[in-house]
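for the recovery benchmark. tokens below, seq after
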């Protein structure tokens, strides 16, 4: 089969986008390092980070590319089943930058969409679900192993009933606990790199991990497909001067499309590949909820590291995380028999990660005071 010339040109354009965003990230970091070069406390940290990351900034990330390819296959199948028009198709790719975002771009009115995700997104979903799989409290039921949706018990077990100072002392003396890995996870994606040990998950925990991670990934990719399906990136709708009200409407339309795709794929047991078990994390859009909530907490940690405080951001193009989660809650287009369970799933994940973040805030403030600043790479 001969490939459509426009499709080939779009692939080449994606490569140019990758090179451009990598170059922009490098220049941003160089500028930051120049600013801190005169500060003895910060200069050594910044320069070491720069040296360690510039050399591999444009390296291909095969793992992320493989995962993205599998998620795209699922989303493509869902769009066909749901009757969504994808025009001439979608070309996906991984962008070589530290970030948790994604974008969809029409390729010069050809009907081909270029969808890119930031390089950190797949490691983010993988590491986050490692933590959740080890953090959850489980109990045996007639249907097998079940997660106890009790945030207070879950977080109390996680911190061992200790104050943050007591847990900090344990960490300094080599007695790491799971709360320390939550701290490192948030700091890592906020811009301070940490190594990540491979967890020893049971088969049941591994199954939960892959269901939950693919639920997040399907939402991110499905959202960008939603922009393409609704033709948000073409004609007048693609203008950067789009009124805020219309821009917000576009984002919520793309979210709704992603929720519908997730609902369909979850109901048939998709978890990066077809399975024989219904993926309730995906079907309920709990994956969408925890992706949005945790990504926002990473933003907050980054802001604390940079400035020592947190503000509530406003955007002319994107509604707030609160607005997007509220829209999902009000949409709630699920089977009556599953609606209450799905709401509990979404609430439970958000509450756990919110409580963990609030417990760790003093550590992030202390990191800022000690002179740690995040890298953009």
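predicted aa per position
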């Amino acid at each position: 089969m001969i490939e459509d010339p426009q499709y080939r040109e779009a692939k080449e354009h994606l490569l140019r986008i990758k090179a451009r965003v990598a170059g922009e990230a490098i220049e941003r970091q160089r500028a930051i390092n120049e600013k801190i070069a005169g500060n003895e406390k910060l200069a050594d940290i910044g320069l070491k980070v720069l040296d360690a990351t510039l050399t591999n900034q444009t390296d291909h990330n095969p793992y992320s590319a493989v995962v993205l390819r599998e998620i795209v296959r699922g989303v493509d199948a869902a769009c066909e089943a749901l009757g969504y028009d994808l025009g001439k198709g979608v070309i996906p790719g991984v962008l070589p930058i530290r970030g948790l975002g994604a974008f969809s771009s029409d390729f010069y009115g050809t009907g081909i969409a270029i969808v890119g995700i930031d390089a950190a997104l797949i490691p983010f979903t993988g590491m986050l679900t490692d933590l959740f799989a080890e953090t959850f409290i489980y109990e045996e039921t007639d249907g097998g192993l079940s997660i106890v949706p009790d945030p207070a018990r879950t977080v109390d077990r996680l911190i061992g009933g200790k104050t943050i100072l007591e847990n900090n002392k344990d960490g300094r003396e080599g007695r790491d606990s799971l709360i320390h890995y939550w701290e490192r996870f948030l700091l890592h994606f906020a811009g301070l790199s940490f190594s990540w040990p491979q967890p020893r998950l049971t088969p049941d925990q591994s199954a939960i991990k892959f269901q939950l991670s693919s639920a997040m990934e399907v939402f991110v990719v499905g959202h960008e497909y939603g922009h393409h399906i609704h033709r948000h990136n073409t004609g007048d709708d693609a203008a950067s001067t789009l009124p805020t009200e219309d821009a917000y409407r576009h984002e919520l339309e793309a979210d709704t499309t992603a929720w519908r795709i997730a609902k369909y794929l979850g109901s048939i047991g998709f978890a990066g590949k077809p399975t024989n078990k219904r993926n309730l994390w995906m079907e309920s859009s709990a994956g969408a909820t925890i992706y949005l909530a945790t990504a926002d907490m990473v933003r907050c940690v980054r802001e604390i590291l940079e400035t020592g405080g947190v503000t509530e951001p406003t955007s002319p193009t994107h509604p707030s995380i609160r607005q997007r989660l509220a829209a999902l809650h009000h949409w709630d287009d699920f089977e009556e028999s599953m609606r209450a369970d799905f709401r509990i799933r979404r609430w439970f994940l958000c509450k756990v990660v919110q409580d963990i973040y609030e417990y760790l805030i003093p550590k992030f403030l202390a990191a800022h005071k000690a002179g740690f600043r995040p890298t953009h790479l």
